[in-house]
Amino acid sequence: MKAVVYEGPRQVSVNDVPDARIERPTDVLVRITATNICGSDLHMYEGRTDFETGRTFGHENMGEVVEVGSGVDKVEVGGHVVLPFNISCGFCKNCERGLTNYCLTTQPDPAAAGAAYGFAAMGPWAGGQAEYLRVPYGDHNCLRLGEDAAEKENDYVMLADIFPTGYHATEMAGVVPGDSVVIYGGGPVGLMAAYSATIKGAAKVMVVDRHADRLKLAEQIGAIAIDDSKVDPVQAVLDQTMGLGADRGCECVGYQAHDPQGTEDPALTMNRIIASVRFTGGIGVVGVFLPADPGGPDEMAQQGKVPFDFGLSWFKGQTIGTGQAPVKKYNRRLRDLIAAGKATPSWIVSHELPLDGAVEAYQQFDDRTDGWTKVILKPAMPAGKAG
Ligand SMILES: [Zn+2]
Ligand SMILES: [Zn+2]
User: Fold this and answer.
1) How many Å apart are CA 293 and CA 295, to the nearest integer?
2) Distance 324 CA to ligand 1 centre (A)
3) Can you list the residues of the chain whose pLDDT is less than 70?
4) Would you give the DSSP letter of residue 56?
5) pTM, 2 dp
6) Could you tell me if 282 and 321 are in contact, meaning their C-beta atoms sit under 8 angstroms apart?
């Protein structure tokens, strides 16, 4: 089968790899209909992780079930499913508590927790930017979709990662109706955090970024766009909140935070968010930070150390939540919002491409080319055709 293969820093190919197949009775085999390129794919694409060459990308996957193992009870051939990017078992100590983002069964390293498709340090699992995907513990990991699966495909595929991840940022920040919320980072996850805050009834949502295409999308859902290449974003948030700071903040940038000139500072958004959120406010950090970053700008960054203003945050009595999203905690409810027509996260999609469009798509997305806000790969689309 064809898949998107990592060849080395800033190099992918679309190549033949061994077919995905049922390996255990609890597996489900899915023919991929839609699979997104994610900002966290770019960390690996840029060679900033120890992702092995020859492995396949793709953790935001949706498709049609073509085969089920003998131990699968609920999922049926012909059904359409969307897969949380977290691969989890459902029965380990963390999964039992709903923390499927830190599954202990699907991560083979006993010193680590959590697994994902096609992801550095998240287990050996193949990615879904491919024609087919093996889904372990299929009954547990497949979220079944209704008859509108194809019609609303671009909405439902966002349930694999970015919609629940954005929602999780607002959960960790503690967003409730009437809150003012500042989102740092207007990429797909930041836009989903803004969207989630809006769905939850936030009174004021502010999105800080510097890319015109992203800020325009933020404004389309009623958020206030703050361009940090033009104004001091902390001052802009204070000006919007009577000098008090926002009730809640969501960090959706991560360790590759940089100023508009491109100088990296992994503490940049953390410090800005701590300064932008009021005393006793809440902060949810879903931007990726790593325990080691060999390509980081200085020795501290290379060791995964981020010198952020903990003293100020402590002084303000802020609550900070961190880590990857437990997608299964939210995906069913968010699916039902989509099914009911009350959420349409596909508004951020800029490109639908066949699998062989991945080579160009990775390059354009990595370059932050204007207008490339979210790319969906559709393996059934004829090669060379853009939609
Ligand atoms: Zn993702
Ligand atoms: Zn587990």
Assistant:
1) 5
2) 10
3) 385-387
4) B
5) 0.97
6) yes
